[in-house]
Amino acid sequence: MSRPSISGDAGAETDAPPAPATRPPRLVTLLVRPLVAGLAVVVVVLAGTGAVNATTEGAQALDRSRFTPDTQRKLQFETVQRELVAKVPRGARVCLPPEFLNDEWEQRIAEFGAMNGIVLLTDPRQADYMLSFAVNVNDKRVTGGLHLVVTPTGR
User: Fold this and answer.
1) What is the tens place of the pLDDT at every residue in 10-25?
2) Mind giving me the DSSP string for 53-78?
């Protein structure tokens, strides 16, 4: 019987039988593979649900015939954000009057401002601009009926 040399002779042959193919243990076959397949199905379902929701919301935003309060609120947020960016310069300090200081709008204005370098203050004496809202029911389906009014404080 010839053995391959340690030096790695290319011409050395062995008479030893080939090693048997290793198979995964039966536990892997019975448990792990179905678990991985099930996890893949869950991931695909979750991704599909998000895609369906996004598509549905996008279609509702384009279809003004089914105008819901939720659609109106989303339009108001988009309008206020767009008008804040257009009317207030970066680095400016803004303040909402007390009648508009509720959790919802205070948080939204702070978020929209943070994304665009605008600071929301609680003290109107330190603000560069005062913000308020104007309602226009005639363009409810275009902007949600709400517009941002920006008034310079003269500071």
Assistant:
1) 555 667 777 666 766 7
2) HHHHHHHHHH-TTS--HHHHHHHHHH
- What whole-number distance in Å separates Cα of residue 27 and Cα of residue 142? 60
> Of the candidates 131, 134, 145, which has an alpha carbon nearest to the alpha carbon of residue 73?
145
Find out whether 127 and 95 touch, Cβ atoms under 8 Å: yes
pLDDT tens figures, 47-59: 899 889 888 877 7
Residue 146 or 137, more confident: 146
Residue spans of the domains in the chain: they are 25-63, 67-152
User: What angle separates helix 69-87 from helix 103-115, to the nearest 10 degrees?
Assistant: 50
Cα separation, 130 vs 152, in Å, equals 6
Round the CA-based radius of gyration of the chain to a whole number and report it: 32
Give the Cα separation of 125 and 28 in Å (integer): 69
